[in-house]
Amino acid sequence: MSETETPFEVAERNTRGGPASGRRAARVLSAQKSAGRVYTPESIVNDILNLSGYVGKRILKRHVIDNSCGDGAFLSRIVERYCRECEPRRLKRELEEFVHGIEIDAGELGKCVKRLDAVAARYGASGVRWDVQCGDALKARQYDGKMDFVLGNPPYIRVHNLGESFDSVKRFAFARGGMTDLYLVFYEIGLQMLNDRGVLGYITPSSFFNSLAGSVFRKSLAEENLLAKLVDLEHLQVFDVAAYTAIVVLEKARKARTVEFCRYENGPRFVANLSPEDYLIDGKFYFSEKSELDELRRVLENGAGNRFEVKNGFATLCDAFFISDRLTGPRVVPVIKASTGKWTKALFPYADGKLIPYEQLATDPELKRYYEQNAKRLKARSLENPREWHAFGRTQGIRDVYKNKYSINGLIRDKSDIKLNRCPPGTGVYGGCYILTEIPFEELQELICSDAFVRYVSLLRKYKSGGYYAFSSRDLKVYLEYAYRRRFGDKNER
Ligand SMILES: C[S@@+](CC[C@H](N)C(=O)[O-])C[C@H]1O[C@@H](n2cnc3c(N)ncnc32)[C@H](O)[C@@H]1O
Predict the structure, then answer these.
(1) In Å, how far are 358, 420, 423, 432, 459 from 333, measured between CA atoms?
(2) If we measure between CA atoms, which residue out of 446, 434, 451, 457 comes closest to residue 484?
(3) Is the minimum distance from the CB of 155 to ligand 1 under 6 angstroms?
(4) How far is the CA of 135 from the centre of ligand 1 (A)?
(5) DSSP assignment of 333-366, as one string?
(6) What distance in angstroms lies between residue 149's CA and the mean position of ligand 1's atoms?
(7) For residue 35, what pLDDT is reported?
(8) Which atom of ligand 1 is nearest to the CA of 70?
(9) Where residue 3 falls among pLDDT bands split at 50, 70, 90?
(10) How far is the CA of 302 from the centre of ligand 1 (A)?
(11) What average pLDDT does this structure show over 152-181?
(12) How does residue 285 score in pLDDT terms, banded at 50, 70 and 90?
């Protein structure tokens, strides 16, 4: 596997300082990615070592491994700590016995060894025969059940990008939940390597909180009571513009059932001790203050109802043809782009919700010419019905043109980002969702343009770049059904 296949990349040496520094880090790392360098910022490594209890005299004679050690970002800090604690006369022998590493890329491993030599030399140990191996950690069994600490930043690769290794990954239990990432398998092999009182500390994508792929892993964390600490880095992107991460500490032989939940603000900041009854909702993980999780649970468990429908707007599959301010004529309707709240016009080849035959449209010479000029690209779309090349690519949103509705954008950071707009009968919506309801606009506005709605959406943690959160039409419906009943009661139930 080449370095370029590994999307985890270098951020700045010091990534502390909130989302702005995350964006800066992202710029730095895309340059480093093209240079093929991959390692974890030192501040994050130290956080993970501290949170995992790899500190002080207790690390002596304890086996520790980084099973995807790269050029040694973790191992060099581990060796440094060991050297500080160990008596010099035993140092060389103990480093050889207790520090372990695996790395699949020989070039990276070579750099790692040099780095470890340099650290040890500062403490007077030379010629250390390091137990760092070039190999595939998925096949290494010699460490199973023996490690006190498994620490690192495992590779983050979608399994369908794995090529030949795909089959060897699929046999792991944590890879059975759908479109899997390799990091989930590294949780499994990491846990296998631990002895019965061992501790695992990783930084990985946080997608396992709610992904289908993470379902087997989540189940096992809950059933075996492994989750000890969790630091959610939320929007802060330490490695990759597309990866949202968390530091996760798992402990075998735990007595407490709670997890210590931290946010990351210039380092881990304790928020709450949470039990599975708090953070496990409908088989998924959600982390926040306890009171917020209680409210989230109430919403998610009481969101049934039929007072609201939330649907996706037009999908023409060729907006450049169907949507333009310049369109005129009897087949044109006003449309709003839900994501921006801007009104424009759409060519709408439908009457009473049914597609108008092309021959009929073509009786208008202007329209015929417009269609003919664009026929090639309209036919190139992946259409539900290839014979209907003059139609929108999908039928969604078409019948509701004749109804009263409200458009809404699907990406927000705070209340001021919410764009809720009235769309009277005769108008269309594209580029987002719309709501069908009989409640007055003012009531709808009160429910949606609220801090409570923004908090709900942020807890769903569908992170997008720029500090935005996404929500789906279903997320919105569930919220509205619950929030309406809570605010206005059931007296008007349809
Ligand atoms: C995200 S990097 C982390 C490197 C290092 N732990 C750090 O934090 O700087 C992941 C490393 O895993 C290595 N890797 C990928 N697949 C591997 C496998 N099957 N066995 C061992 N190492 C692997 C990659 O070459 C890469 O160096």
Answers:
(1) 18, 20, 12, 17, 37
(2) 446
(3) yes
(4) 10
(5) EEEEETTTTEEEEEE--EETTEEPPHHHHTTSHH
(6) 17
(7) 27
(8) 27
(9) very low
(10) 43
(11) 76
(12) very high
For residue 69 and ligand 1, the question of a CB distance below 6 A is answered with: yes
Specify the pLDDT at position 236.
87
487/480: higher pLDDT: 480
Q: Which fold has domain 3-287?
A: Rossmann fold (3.40.50)
The answer, yes or no, to whether residue 298 has pLDDT greater than 80, is: yes
Q: Where are the domains of the chain?
A: 3-287, 308-488
- The one-letter code for the residue type at 290 is K
Which pLDDT score, from 0 to 100, does residue 21 have? 41
156 Cα: distance to centroid of ligand 1 (angstroms): 9
pLDDT of residue 375: 95
For the cut 80, the answer to whether the pLDDT of residue 492 exceeds it is no
CA distance 143 to 470: 42
Does the structure show a pLDDT above 90 at 438? Answer: yes
Exposed, middle or buried by CB within 10 Å (0-12, 13-18, 19+), for 438? exposed
Ligand 1 nearest atom to the CA of residue 8, by list position: 1
Q: Which atom of ligand 1 is nearest to the CA of 73?
A: 9
pTM reported for the whole predicted model: 0.85
Question: Smallest Cα–Cα separation from 248: which of 207, 291, 281?
Answer: 207
Residue 70 Cα to ligand 1 midpoint, Å, equals 5
Residue 196 tokens, joined:
């019965």
In order of 184, 213, 253, the CA distances from 162 in angstroms are 14, 16, 34
Mean confidence (pLDDT) of the chain: 88
From 38, 100, 143, the mutation candidate for ligand 1 (largest count of ligand atoms within 8 A of CB) is 38
Query: Is any atom of ligand 1 closer than 6 Å to the C-beta of 475?
Result: no
Ligand 1 atom at shortest distance from the alpha carbon of 136: 20
SS3 315: coil
Share of residues in the chain with pLDDT > 90 (%): 78
Give residue 474 CA to ligand 1 midpoint distance, Å. Answer: 38
From the CA of 249, how far away is ligand 1's center (Å)?
Answer: 19
Residue 153 Cβ inside 6 Å of ligand 1? The answer reads yes
Beta carbon of 5 within 6 Å of any ligand 1 atom: no
Q: What percentage of the chain has pLDDT greater than the value 70? A: 88
Residues 257 and 228: their CA atoms lie apart, in Å, by 8
Is the Cβ atom of 435 under 6 angstroms away from ligand 1? no
CB atoms within 10 A of CB 171: 10
Q: Is a pLDDT exceeding 70 seen at residue 29?
A: no
- Please tell me if the CB atom of residue 66 comes closer than 6 angstroms to any atom of ligand 1: yes
In sequence order, the β-bridge partners of residue 408 are: 420, 433
| Range from 221-235, 238-252, 313-327 carrying the lowest mean pLDDT | 238-252
Q: What is the DSSP string of 406-457?
A: EEE-SEESSGGG--EEEE-TT-EEESSEEEEESS-HHHHHHHHSSHHHHHHH
